[in-house]
Write a structure and sequence with these properties.
This protein is mostly helical. It is built from 19 helices and no strands. The N terminus is likely disordered.
Amino acid sequence: MKTRFVIILLLLNVAALATGFVYIGQYWGAQTAHDRDAAQAELAAWQARAAAPEPAAPVQPLLVYQTNDFHWSQLESTNYREYIANLRAIGCPENTIKDIILTDVMRLYAQRRGQFYHNGRPFNYWETNDKRKLKQPQIEERDRQLATIDKELPAVLRELLGINYERELNKYFVDADEDDNRLAFLSEDKRSQVLSLRDQFEGKRERILYDAQDGKPLASEIEQLREIDQLQDEALAQVLGPQEVELYELSASPTADRLRQQLIGFNPTEEEFRSLFDKQKTIDDAYEFEDTNDATVSAAKASDEAAMMAAFKGNLAGDRVAQFDRSQDPEYQKLTLLSARYDLPADASETLLEMRHAAEEEKEKLLSNKDIPPERVEAALEAIQAETEKTARATLGEQAFAQYSQTATWIKNLGAH
């Protein structure tokens, strides 16, 4: 039917059409009751026409069908909430609505950002770039305004669409299937419910923290946050079984994410990871709403974590303790990531660290020996640097060494007196 064709065409092209017809600058303005009533009446009339059956028309070749039954004015509104409601009223899919509103809001805030990068001077092609640089007061005002935007934009998108701003951007620039991969142990239905609950309770927390002074919630607000945590736990328990809840925490909680970063180079077994996770989660829960910028609180948490690590290492067997201690070295973690990227031998990271320690130790010996003439010391240091660089290049390969040498200042420092 003709009307059905129009609706299908609308839904397939709505995201593209929206960018050309939406009046961005007017969404937040107030709309009169008369305008609202007129828009609703027009929409109702269009829906009535869309519902009326029409006889099927014969298909003719090269026929371009046009209709005046639909106008964007029937959907557009000066208020985002009403615009969303209008889109839903015609059965527009939620993902399409999200794409339209997200694109529109991002463009609106991009315009707000852009105005603070200009010093107000008109462009003259013969003038050098220093003429268009911001003055210091303008830079300070820009930074204040951008801080406001950075706080406001996630809150607006959460309020309108119920989405996490950072996670939504990751779907476009990092990994659109991250949630599905992490929660693959759940059925599609349960996964959908869990993600919906996550977004729902995240929104509740964000609304409380948005107004917190300097990011520090009051005692009453902390109590509300604790209640939200409890309600979320109860809601998850209604959807998932006990083992599924445990796997969800191990897969998607902030504690688990931090451990996966902190344990690079240690390669924990599943049992080791679970053991450390249980201990770390207990500490994280205890200090979740504490001010860790407070020296007393920070010291107490550090003490608890040190005791936790000691208890964890006490249960490790053989050389696992040494492997764990080594993995806590940032340099070793960086080398481990580099080795994984370039598929280097398993012992490449350890070899480089041993090489560094040996070279730096040899340098210290030379510098502390007062019987060696300065010119011979300088020549020896240059030789140590050259040999170390040669060996490191051979160990890592040209590509990996080229990347590693950009930050491995210790190699260059070997030749410095």
